Amino acid sequence: DVKKNQDGFYHITMITQKGIKHILSKTIILATGCRARTAKQIFIHGTRPSGVFTAGTAQYYTNILGHMPTKKCVILGSGDIGMIMARRLTLEGAKVEGLYEVKSELGGLMRNYSQCLIDYNIPLYTNKTVTKVFGEKRLTAVEISSVNDDMSVIEGSQKIVDCDALILSVGLIPENELAEKMEVPIDEFTKGPIADQCNQTLKDGIFICGNAHHVNDLVDYVSKAGITAGRCAANYVNKERKLVKLQKSDLLSYCVPQYIDKLSEQKNVDVYFRSKARIKDVRVSVTADNRVIATKKLVEIRPAEIETIQLDLSKAGNDISNIFLSCEKV
């Protein structure tokens, strides 16, 4: 539990192996990571047999416990961990019937598609999903259905695939139960707290980093965010912030940080963003009061891959009133 005292300190109550512990701190860094969506969150019907795993659970069984969770499996979703587990299970002798992706294109990085699926002849099926599971004590089969552009199931397209495990790689959600209890404003798209370039949320003294902020593709981005949050939290002084919202192009689904504190000493900023659709040959630019302060050309942008652009806010000055992240085809 976390409560803020009248003196400005946060009173943190923790349960440890040695009992209940109380800590007073001016700052808190939330590094709670993310969790996987489950079968019930994506509305898969049928019985409740054993053999339905998230990709992370299957990875834990295989890599940490040394147990094979399956001999013949279906993987739903083409996220990075799903593709990595397809390769891992194949190397351990399991038969991967295929990866089934409800969208029309890959859900993870292209390098993982090449290294994990193509190199090991594991098939990828797009515009298909699992609609039902079969089995009593153990999973015996799944029902695969085709979907249209509206993600609606096409009647008559169903087929049964025999397997003893269904592995889910259907997305991650930032774990922010604690942030919500502290009434930290949450971004509707990323499902993580809204923050500035210091990774400080809209609640003074509360910082966020890693996958608790937004789900990252690479651990390098997570590590970098942790360093920024740690440094800014250590140097934290409760002073006024002047926040300017980082506006974005309609071609982008989100960008972080969501705000820029123009009084902050953190002038070198990495902006992370995702596109809504696959677009080739684009120019991404950041303007401050209609003056370009950063620009970058990209061969292709995809919804499944985070892109970054680096800003030097010292070029913008301290009186900026508008910052815009643009994206246009060239």
Structural account:
The chain is of the alpha/beta class and 330 residues long. It has 3 domains: 1-34 and 174-237, FAD/NAD(P)-binding domain; 38-170, FAD/NAD(P)-binding domain (3-Layer(bba) Sandwich); 240-330, Sandwich (Immunoglobulin-like). It is 16% helix and 38% strand. The protein contains 5 helices and 24 strands. The strands form 7 sheets. Strands 7-14-8-9-10 form a 5-stranded parallel beta sheet. A hairpin with a 2-residue loop joins strand 21 and strand 22 (291-301). The longest helix has 16 residues, at 219-234. It is globular and about 60 Å long. The mean pLDDT is 93.
Topology:
Elements: E1 2-4, E2 10-16, E3 19-25, E4 28-30, E5 34-36, E6 45-46, E7 52-54, H1 55-65, E8 72-76, H2 80-91, E9 95-101, H3 110-118, E10 124-126, E11 128-134, E12 141-146, E13 159-162, E14 165-168, E15 172-174, H4 177-181, E16 206-208, H5 219-234, E17 243-248, E18 252-256, E19 259-261, E20 268-275, E21 279-288, E22 291-301, E23 307-312, E24 323-329
Strand order of the largest sheet: 7-14-8-9-10
Total number of distinct structural domains: 3
- Category from helices, strands and their pairing: alpha/beta
Total strands: 24
CATH A-level architecture of the largest domain: 3-Layer(bba) Sandwich
- Apparent shape: globular
Uncertain stretches of 5 or more adjacent residues:
none
Total number of helical segments? 5
Largest sheet: number of strands, sense, barrel closure: 5 strands, parallel
The CATH superfamily title of the largest domain: FAD/NAD(P)-binding domain
Gyration radius, to the nearest Å?
22 Å
Under CATH at level 1, the class of the largest domain stands as Alpha Beta
Indicate the CATH topology of the largest domain.
FAD/NAD(P)-binding domain
> What gap, in angstroms, lies between the N and C termini?
51 Å
Write the element-wise H/E pattern from the N-terminal end onward: EEEEEEEHEHEHEEEEEEHEHEEEEEEEE
